[in-house]
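Possible race condition, two jobs.
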Amino acid sequence: MKNLFLGLLLLLAGCKFYHNTTARFNAYFLANEKITEVEIALFGKYNDDFNNVLQVLHTLDSNTAKPHKTSLDYAIEKASIAIENHKTSDWTDDSYILIGKARLYLGDFRNALNTFKYVNSTSTDVNARHKALSFLMRSFIEKKDFKSAEGVAQYMAADPTPISPENSKDFYITLAHYYRLRNSYANVAKYLEKAIPYIKKRQERNRMMYICAQIYMRLNQNAKAYEYFSAVANANPDDNMLFYAQLNAAKTLDVSDKPEEAKKVARGLVAMLEDEKNAEFKDKIYYDLASFELKQNHVPEALDFLSESLFASQGNEAQRAYTYRLFGKIYEEKYQKYEKAATYYDSSAQLIKPNMDYFEEIKTKSKLMSKFAKYYLAVKKADKLLKLSAMDTADAKEILRQEMEGEKADLDKLEEAYKTRQSQKPAQAKSESKSKFYFYQNELVNFGKSYFFREWGNRPLEDHWRRADKQRVAQNVAVQVNENQEVKKEVKKDKYASVKTVAARLKEVPNTEDRKNALLDSLQSSLLSLAKMYADDFKEYDNARKNLERLYQEFPKSRFRAEILYQLGKVCKLLLPCKSDSYDKELREKFAETMFAKLLDNKNFVQETNQHDATVEKIYEKCYDLYQKNDFVATQNLLDEALIKYPENKFLDKIKILKVMTVGKTQNLDIYKKHLEDFIKENPQSQMLDFAQKLLESAGKVN
């Protein structure tokens, strides 16, 4: 009997061994191999954008998995055999997990979820349950059921049973993937740092460290970012990751207390330039060298590297947009040369795309700097023309001739500099950039743009923009196309075409009192606008005061006198030594009825005026509605009430003209015409003046 019992035990043990062996090395093995093949095909490579925080895991796409459906169905079939034929084996739970993964990759979320739930609820193997829970969370994430995914994460985190290193890694990486999809970057870094100690594969570990570095860089925790970027660079990553890790290490290094480390990083960047495999990235490397020098306040060196970046560019518009932006920032912040910064910001704005970094900043800066450049160049040109108008014609011509020759010499120097640079490039690079001479030369581009802006203003990009009759020109322009559809174009090669002749320049000099007065008025307006920009936009109160004091001293009868006094007083209150009392006193005594005088005693004047205007606007809209409904008596009563209660408002002209129009509906023609004539006489500067004159003309035609 005893022997029989032992025999049964041995038989059962043998059966268990048989089922474990058969399940593992037959059906399960084949299913697992097929799943692995599919995973390599689907997830073996990342299509990474290193300018953005990398994705932690691939987002599953059932369309991408469709070509692999046969393989995944095969895996499900083999795993099912392991389950059906070897129910007592230790590989049943693992086979279910393979089936769940195959269903997940196929986008069959319902059956995948049910499979992972089944393993978690029935398995006695804690490792299998934890693995199933990680894939259950992943399934909810891909299904975009984020609330359920969070529930699984909380349930697994609360499990008192220790989690194996492999399952800990999968759990934390899946959580990081979840938070990456939600753009919760701090949480991504938190869980990746928990996962990294458990990651054995070098490339996977490098990826997770690189993502942590990107996030800390984004969060302005540069010390931690530098630590991770350096760790990645020293861990033999793939070429792309090494390239960006080295660049970003330079960006995040604190050079103030690590001079030796800074030298090492700089040498690394220079070495990257000399590496042939980085040839196509030279523009970016030069850009990052410029940024690195700028961090150390080496401004001239930074400008040199930025010029190299533009010169090395091979049509990379995104990089050129960033390079122009950095040029603009340097001239704005380091040199306060806003008119020069304007050309760079404008170039950047032409290239920047809405999905790129700094888009809003660049668009805003471009508008601001272009506005400044407009006033700055207007002042400069007006001063020059007024000075020339006071000179003898022969002397004026000589100065203009020298100016013209100077511009030609500038173009010659830039062309010569270009030729020198071209001779230093490889033959292939020469041929590639030959046709792009002008637009690959930063200084020549900006010289041309500033010259164009100075002479012609801010005009849209279009053909024949100087022609008086562009429509006729457009209709008469014919493009000759031969039988091979090759477009033939005649290219004009006069490099001095943009340089105006002395005669053309002389015509701009004002030669009558009316032209001089118009130019003087324009000069005053531009100086005032320039001063306000210095004060309000750039907080450069000394420059603001210089322009305002020039206006105050040179133009005592300016039509802007009240505002000049107000702005001078406001700026003087911010500067020492500078007394604002005299300006405030003159403003109160000579311009007491102006808005600027009232602002001195009532700081809320503008706010209160805006509130009144909003109220009056509603009243006006109601009056106009009544007028359209032919309720003229009610219209007039409401208008009279508004004029009594709000005698000063920005809708005053509209209210007055609407009142005149009600007279035309309720009184005879002569009274109506008299009211129109009075309005025109009493409101010569009104925006409604043309409208009133047209009404009077129409009334005059009535018999």
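Job #2 (started ~2 s after job #1):
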Amino acid sequence: MDEDASRFLDREESWLRFNQRVLELAEDERLPLLERVRFLAIFSTNLDEFYMVRVAGLVRRMTTGLLGRNVAGLLPREALDRVMELTQDLVARQSACFQDKIRPALAAEGIHLLGWDELNDEDHARLRTLFDERIYPILTPLVVDPAHPFPYISGLSLNLAVFVRNPLTGVRRFARVKVPSSLPRFMTVSDQRFVPLEEVIAAHLGRLFTGMEIVQKDVFRITRNQDLEVDEDVTEDLMQLLEQELLRRRFGSPVRLEVADSISPTILDQLVEELELADTTAILRLTAPLDLGGLHIIADLPRRDLKYPRFVPSDTVVSRDESIFAALRGREILVHHPYDSFTGSVERLIHAGAVDPGVQAIKQTLYRTSGDSPIVDDLIDAAEAGKQVVVVVEIKARFDEYANISWARKLEEAGCHVVYGLLGLKTHCKLAMIVRQDSDGVLRRYCHVGTGNYNPKTARIYEDLGLMSADPALAEDVTALFNYLTGYSMPDGYARLLVAPSTLRPGLIERINEETEHAKAGRPARIRFKCNSLVDEEIIDALYAASGAGVPVDIWVRGICALRPEVPELSENIRVRSVLGRFLEHSRVYAFQAGGEQTEMWIGSADLMHRNLDRRVEALVRLADHGEVEHLDGLFDMVMDERSDAWRLGPDGTWTRPRTDDGPAIDVQNFLMAQRRD
């Protein structure tokens, strides 16, 4: 390996390469058209969050004087410049995809995304009425003059910058008009014909500035630092502090200014000056409409012919004729969402716990869930029925803080014991336990350990695994972990769990090193990881050492990967693949061949990042059923097959998606859907 090259890839660039793969799905003409529109919207919303958190972090490092190199060998300024360069390239590709591919393809299907100038007189008259009735009453033009300072511009809001002139005095003034977020991003002109909301407003600015001349008008959007900084050591009321910090979040400093490529220099100069945007590389010029995240409204159109074929999850993991408690007394059950129904498995388990008279207690962690979740309702019903219900709520789940505070209070009001986790740690593990007095008089504990949130909405589009079990050893582990979360307990070990921040990283590294020793001794060895992100340097270095000893290492990662694969004398035995598609790959799996005996396989909530391993409570559970292990191992075989529809990571950090000439590529998601249909 070149001595000047770092053995780690830059995590920010790696994330942008992930979002590039999302964009490639939008560009892929083999996919249904409205699904491509959806991926184009996802690309935009992904990029918004990246700027609010990751780019904001780089800017904060520079402004606070933390100028050391990162593990990829880059100074903050170098990393930021690279981010800006790549982002400009990607948004140019996004704009070209929208203008040159998506819009014409939609038009060919009778779905028209039009500009104001493309509409006819009848359309203009209809939209004029719509403007008068629904838009005009909620608009507030804000002028800048000696009596009116430049208004605060909220993050991610769409705005019109306007220069108006008094025809009597010739005085010019700058004004800002906020595009209401309460209205659809694309307004309906007529059946399946749409126009951007800001163009409707721009065409009627004369109503807002009566008697004035509209000299110039342009659209802009800013992104602000929206990462939270909560010092838990100085407060006794975490919820109150978090609410205060959320109010401050909207006043974060600007980290991105998005403008139309045709923006007038006068307006741009005014925005840069008023926003105090010292770094002009933070300006993104777009040829497509700003905020294409609003394309979700188009992707939601009821055109089944332009979407993925319907898929109904399997509801047979536990027979409807069998009690779920009886089923779990006989065997452990591994569920794979969304291929296995979340409603028919996890929701069913929690509901059974809420209504069964033999159940005495329910304990559960909640990180993110939907506002109308049946699980929250079941926990409330259980508490109101007199059962002891303990809920460990993580109210610091990024961008879900308001929702989590709301239903945490709802749970408390119903009589649930709500705990907000541990000081300085986010509770990210996915655990549920139901304590039941069975008909044979035995008090049993029924557990669920998962890789994804207890969220019935995302369970339909996120790929996740969950283990349901009545194994006493696992139940004892889960009980000890709940005691750690809710009380003052320090478990000295677990039988079937690896738990962060105590045993998870050491446990994985110990097993990586064992595979290294197996290979050196001539015994069978292999490591297979599936995760969302691989960043932790200690884990990566252990994998490099294993590769050097001859251990084949397969990494199946969705997003960030800081490991350089296939580098001679460093990682030549490591392959990295990425699957993106209809469902968001979200499960985490860690497998070790263990010297030729039955593969040891773990599933759970933890990605291989510093925050997961050091600053969160995470849990992995070891699978005990050989058939379940073989099933997941077979999925690894499919993804690592050279004919698979998976992106390959090269040693330089770039990803390539191969095309097969001998028929359709192997698609693991299609395989699993077909398997459930059969």
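The chain has 19 helices and 27 strands.
Logs attached separately.
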